[in-house]
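FAQ: What does a multi-protein file look like?

Like this. Sequence, then tokens, then the next protein.
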Amino acid sequence: MVCLPREWIIKGRVDKSALPDLKFTPAFRSLMKIRGLDTSGDVLNFLCPNLGQLRDPRAMKNMEKACGRILLAIEKKEKIGLFTDYDVDGVCSAVLIQRFLINVGCEPPAVFIPDRAGDGYGLNVRGIDELHRKGVSLLITADCGITAVEEVGHARSLGMDVIVTDHHEPGAVTPDAYCILNPKQADCPFFGEDLCGAGVVFHLIVALRSRLRDKGIDCLPNLKEELDLVAMATIADAVSLSGINRILVKEGLTILNASGRVGLAALARVSGINRELFTRDIGYILGPRINAAGRLSDARKAFDLLITEDEAKALALARELNELNRCRQMEEQQVLSEALGQLESAPPLENVVVVQGANWHTGVIGIVASRLSAIFSRPAIVISVSDGIGIGSGRSVSGVDLYGAVSKISDHLNDFGGHKMAIGLNINEDRISALARDLDSVLAVPLGLTKSFEIDLKISPLDITPTLMEELDMLAPFGEGNPEPVFLIPSMEVVATKKYARGQYKLLLKHSNRVFHTLRCTIDEASQELARYVDVAFTPVKMRTNGHQYLYLALKAISPAGQSQEQFPSGS
């Protein structure tokens, strides 16, 4: 939603003297400086990440112990079992381990992916028992298990060793597993790296490959070819796209567009994509189709799609996931409409959106939470209530640790888990109102809704050139930890407006004899009566239409020209 701030917080202005030894535009060089890249080397390392910059996976806490136990299982031909989550991250994690074990000569591990509706999230007794009946003696979790104290205890009582690989926040008590791989452990050397589950698993198989190579084993798989799956999971799970993740995603997108993974090629084809894939395609097109299997049907279909090398089977599965996604969209729209109806009669709290409904499909409440979070520019929690129990899913906004906030009021909950951008919870129906009230009071949300709005650079319309647009492309992939740049141009003339449903608008803006079209956007109600001249915060984007490329402004905030105050951070 485009908001109306009273105050602009501007990080900097175009400085022609910034990083003078780099042959970039002054606007881009200035942007690099305010992003904390103080030297030419810092800039080039950021713009051109490579696998050589990755950290040694053996430094991750318990990595050597985990590798030793898995290698022992391989040597003794033990039955290995995988228990994973049903979303993109979990499915990709399972495929990574499965393919690695098969490619080093092991028999396929037994894989259990829980049913969202019947099992819920996380390690469970039913799955453990099923894997035990198949003879599993070593159980590896992927993208789950860090809070499964009782479940890991159950597996141990059956004689299983359990290696937990996860990236969610640990609880006060961790499972008594054989070992735990999770960079969120405070004493882990990888602490602070916001890896997704597949990112943790990738480090595990890289370390395993290294150990096998040290044993003199040849013909080991080229794990660079698996980075498309790591990129998929990282983007879909909305973790930070800085640090290690930037390297993994940047390299993974290259692999994704160059490799011939049959399942992903089929999924792109049935989704109508016949060009190079970008980050947004994974986040908004491919990812939701893979997730649709676990949301409305069986996540095993997504697993089978990513593991198969049969083109006919891949095409059939891709078409099925595409149809499931269509059904998911219908379910999502119904829940979203009911949620918005609630909020029309009872507006959201100041810092959070919390809505509830009877028997809303739990497979879509996370997506609806994301939609509400985007619409209202604040964290959102959507809760489906059945028989007095609410199953909820929450999504946050950039800079707000939703998991940390919920942790402070967890006495309202039966159970919860997740990370700073996404949570899941279980709550008694009669506690939902208190949860919403108390969460609103503890959230410190840098919203900028009628308060302040943060800008990277104040620029001139003449700074927006084709060269700058090409330079901005080098900053991708964008996401948490590496947001799209936001610029401010003051005193733009509103030449024309076009209104759509639900408060959406397109604007035609003019400045310095240049005319700019905006993308369709939802404008905060307080901003809908636009002045003739406005200060505009935006991200410039390129869109291809009918074979031609056009420049648009994606509006972020807008205010009457000269009425908003300007502030510059100290030292700027």
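And here is the next protein:
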Amino acid sequence: MDLQPLYEVKERLERAAVAGTGLLGEDFRLKRALEGLATLAAASPVFAKIHAGVEALLSAPPEQRGGALLDALALVDAVAYTQAAVGMPGALEPLPPGTGTCQDVSYSQLHPLLEALTGTGGGRFNVVQETYENHPEYFSDYRVLPALVQGLGDSYGKLAEFNAAILSRQGPGVAPLLEEGFDPAGGRAMARRVEVLAQAAGAQANDFFLAQLPQAKKEVRLALIGALGCSPANTQLLLELCRKERKGEALDRARCALLQLDTPEAADYLTQLAKTEQDAMLVYLANTSSQAGSRFTAMIFNHILDQMEADPEAVLPAEVWKRLKVLCSVLVRKTGPEVCALYHRLAGLSQQQLDRLVEGARGKPVVMRFSCYNGHEQGTLRLLAGLTLSDTLKNVEDLELCRLAIQLQEQAGDDFLAPALTARLISRTPEDSYTWAEGHIFWPRLLGKRLWEEALHPLRVALGNLNWVEQDGVYRYLTAWYPQPVQYAVPSVPPLDIRWFSLLTQMGRSMDHTLIALLHGRKLPGLPRRVLEHLYRSALSLGDYSMVLRIVELLGEFGWTEWDGFAAQWAVTLGGSDLSYWEVFYIIRSLPIPARKKAEQLRQVNQLVSAGKVRLRNNGYWPASEVQKCLDEWEQAAQREGEENHV
């Protein structure tokens, strides 16, 4: 339908509204436009009504034309607006697919994040980190993703790496943004794009990697070589690179990429490499959890064990001890039948094999031992293997390894307590894992202090790094934090039996870190009061200011109300050279008590400082002006609270 006559009538009426109605009887252009509208009037009632309205306007007496003009113009405008359209010449083409999602978040809410990602200056990392902690969904928004890609080249390296870690979790959908404007000679920012693409898209980005490699320079080329491990189709290209690159990082990247590929050609090359360059191979194996990597790790480990068994009386060279230590580190995250068979072999080592002599620092033979439990104990190769298995279970979802860990503990004893408990936490019911653990705990009344500490080690290993994830309703092992985003491993642990928390309070202050982590964020209405009392006493005796804050926050979440005199007691107990005035202020500020009671607690500490009963850092620095400022703030807040309660 041609609406041009309607628009002509609209234009003439608007001109009449400006010029006045006195000349309407002589407006031949309006009359001609009205004639053109006749065809539309015959086709539609609404246009017929417009036609009749304009006719009435033209025939109306002069004194009635003003109202008739407004009526006609209002109707024409209303109809014209309903017919509005926009366009441009040319053929219609589909829009390219978008990247990201449209989150229900206003631009003003995203503005601080976008400013931190694209701006300069200090403090930006904290903004991005805190936003990711509180609103991770913002980072999949189509307005934020381009800023994240731009941020891969941020001058502050920690922020650039943080952005890369976030983008790596976005999946293949982020590939178009990373590929757009890519410069194969662009330096570290472009190398990060390749690394993110390899993690987010994998083999789906292989054509892009191959297309960019010929013209790539320096670190971008290195990143592209490493990314070729995403597809078995790249085997021959990587082997060719290994032949051409005689040494250097390009050769290392190509070999690491081959370890990602489970192909016969790659296996032949790597098997020969394991025989001729064993130490270099261990470096490559440390960076992969592929099945090929698992097989080669087991192969090298077994080869060294074969050599040890071939001459059981010989003193082992120091380099063999070092290689065994490295192998246990490399073995973390490795799985598969060859690895399971290796653990069986390690668990079955005889005491004579475990107590082999090795060359000491000055050439004098010493019994072979390794640093275990984060360096707190010296243990046998079997114990170190058990701890390696525990670390693997916490990072890899593998029920077969869980069954193996339980079986090995039953066969080999205490050296496999830590992996057996870890496996039970993951694969058994909460009641089963608690009951089993309780039966393997030695109480302090029965053991000396040293043996008691040794008995706690497996608990620290199995329960350490467990964090409650409220949205999933399970515990997960924390694997990455600062400067990376929060990252949890895949295995999950169902809600712990509530008896764990009472048990942990009986094990002394050395398990407080674990107890606090397990309780944080978990709603437990039936938590025994003895647990809260234990935490309160711990807070009063802890010199770690950050730990005290965590306990105060935790007790507040569980409804603890008995805070009278807390700050004064804490200050007196720990008022040595390490106590600072601002720590006292922050502790009081964090207490879940009314402002009036906060002011009261600060006055108590102030009196103790004046009486010399609390010593402070920086020659007893205690700023009276800051004290008064806090007191004024809390007293004013108390007055407002009182007025609200009165109302």
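Q: Is there any per-entry metadata?
A: Some entries carry free-text notes. For the entry above: The chain has a mean pLDDT of 87.
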